[in-house]
Amino acid sequence: MSLYEATQQAEVPTQVRRVLHVPAGGGKATWLSGDVYSVKAGAAETGGSIAVLEASVPPGGGPPPHRHADEDEAFYVLDGRLTIRVAENTYEAGTGDFVFVPRGTAHQFHNHSLHAAKLLLIFTPGGVENFFLEAGTEPTPGVPVPVEDPPGVAEVGARHGVIPASFD
User: Fold this and answer.
1) In sequence order, what DSSP letters do the residues of 27-81 get, joined into one string?
2) Closest alpha carbon to 28 in 6, 11, 52, 9
3) CA distance to 27, 89, 90, 151, per residue, from 23 (Å)
4) Are strands 117-124 and 98-101 parallel, antiparallel or unpaired?
5) Distance between CA atoms of 128 and 6, rounded to whole angstroms?
């Protein structure tokens, strides 16, 4: 069953019946690929329609090349600069820039600057937030984010339609 099909099952409401407000600094946080991700909204809160994560990407941070089998992804840079590679294109994205990546397209982002970058990751439909929460590790305040991913990330990714990719 695809992630999209899973989000359409009975346990996920098909119609959102309440407003969602997540205060600044709120949302379930996780460490993954050297970055900090905070889930602002997911399938359970949006009737399966969207997932929104805030990412803090330190210098040198960013995930390896990958693609999403079931979701489109959009990046909106809140602060800083990132190199975003999408298929054969490379974008130097700064504060206020937006990049849309259709599902199935190889992509990655990387922080080549001296300062942390912040961005919003927007996925449609929702559900992929479960990959981040399952594959990542619980953050510890005051401790550097581990650069190495925990064991089993590829297997968790396969279950959630997050697939390693290359730009060959």
Assistant:
1) SEEEEETTEEEEEEE-HHHHTTS-EEEEEEE-TT--PPSEEESS-EEEEEEEESE
2) 52
3) 8, 35, 33, 32
4) unpaired
5) 11
- Using one digit for the tens of pLDDT, what is the confidence trace for 75-119? 999 999 999 999 999 999 999 999 999 999 999 999 999 999 999
Tokens of 54: 């805030």
Asked if residue 110 lies in contact with residue 93, where contact means CB atoms within 8 angstroms, the answer is no
Place of tokens 């479960």: 130
The DSSP symbol for 144 reads P
pTM: 0.87
The answer to whether 54 touches 36, Cβ cutoff 8 Å, is no
